[in-house]
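Run: sequence + FE2/S2 (inorganic) cluster -> complex structure.
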Amino acid sequence: MIPNQWYAILESNEVKPGKPVGVTRMGEKLVLWRDEKGQVTCMSDLCPHRGVALSAGKLIGGNIQCPFHGFEYDPSGRCALIPANGKNATPPKVMQVRRVYSAREAHGFIYIWWGEPRAAQDLPPLPWFDSIDDTFAYATLRDPWAAHYSRAIENQLDVVHLPFIHHNTIGRGNRTLVNGPLTRMERDAAGDLLNLWVYNVLDEGQPPLKPSEIPEPQQRPFLQFRFPNLWQNWISDDLRIVVAFAPVDDENTLMYLRFCQKSVKVPILRELFNLSGTLSNLVIERQDRRVVVTQQPKRSDLRIGEKLIQGDGPIIEYRRRRNELIASAAAGGG
Ligand code: FES
Ligand SMILES: [Fe+2]
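>> structure
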């Protein structure tokens, strides 16, 4: 994982008021809950007293109570009460939940800051796509993949696979020859954005165009990847497919597949349209999943012995930038 980044790890509606939720993300068991104002807290799902999962407990006011011996922890992870020591005793400082993650919500996702702890004002804005605003309606499906999140992301940047894996869906037409593709990296306050334009065509014996032979695109990109874990297929100004790749652990990723549109606004029709959109997304994702889960090694990187071709350019760009971000976080930046 790239440290010092905001990761979308859950959808907002998965954390309901009044009830803690236990999930595995970033290779760690985490508990999330909302305080009385609806503010989300995220911390290690482990009671420092004797190792019980806090998510099996309940909420008392804005605090979480461990189910075993009733110790209560506030949103900063500090123990607020040890009932066995009496309500007037001050719990010792060591009775502190191991890690508390800064958590924020936007665009229907819960993000956590994974990296060195920082004061709220020092955290960058949440990564998202400026071209998707709140006028879009959406429906989401969750699809678990037994793959490292880097492999799942690379699959969404892989334009070479389209006519093979998706020969009967989005890759129809046998456009096996891969011109380019073109990629352009961009950087703004919320981080890095990889833009991608696809020029797959029928193979009529011509050599594929190099990226440098393709004119600078004037139209919007076909795909965008927002580091560290968001992707969109910009189908039209009114229609997008968004994927959040929530890292579960080194071998598993939870894909949040979102169908976003703003062309159908009538309530019931809109829901039907969104539902059919997510279902066809799922068919396509399952075509990918079958193959991607077999990739070795599980985690991708620049030097893992793969023999890449010109069409794999976006994957190389992703790996390069990912490594740079990891190195810059290790040097204290990011
Ligand atoms: S294990 Fe949590 S209070 Fe004892
Ligand atoms: Fe695919």
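>> summary
The first helix runs from residue 149 to 156. The mean pLDDT is 96.
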